[in-house]
Design a protein that fits this description.
By secondary structure, this protein is mainly alpha-helical. Helices cover 41% and strands 0% of the residues.
Amino acid sequence: MKRILFSVLALGALAACNPAIPDSGAGVGFDNYDTYQQKQAARDAALGGGALPPPQAVSSETLAPAAASGIASASNAAASTDTSGVVQASPANAAPVLRASGISDENNFDAVSGQRSIEGDAAKRAQNQQQYQVIQPTALPTRQGSGGPNIVAFALEAKNAKGQRVYKRNSFNAANKYRKNCAGFASADQAQQAFLAGGGPVKDRKGMDPDGDGFACTWDPAPFRNAVSG
């Protein structure tokens, strides 16, 4: 019973601590809505005395001439047109250059016929023919180089395919010779040329052609043959 009584007293104390919010009847930012409408009506009457025109309305008033209203300046007056229709240039700009309409003299037959003649053109052609020179062909320069075997000619003369044995080879230590000697050349063409210069394709002292097809290292005659056959 004491516990219930204590709870009631606590609730009453909390209610006494919360003050009541007064209701003034006014909105936010002004006294009340009626007073706001009265002030708004007075403001509209002071601005124009009537409602604003719709957005699409077009004014019927006419603008006064620029000279009468004092808006025109000296530059605007100088740029105006006179009664003859000729545009007057502004003092700040150069006078416009009027060009005659029509085609140029180069495309005008009457103008060209007055400047040139058939006799003059014939004399001009004769002068050009006198200055014409025929340059005779000369012999090709001698090819510089060691003059070693021609691998292109060898590719076209050989009839066997790559890997097809034609010549006898010594198989003793063939793999090691092949790797060692072929690694000393920057390209397969250089290896084939050195192989032919050293007695190939019949002889293979350095073991660069272990399969006996006549083609050293990885050199292949097919690209040269295909270029000739098209």
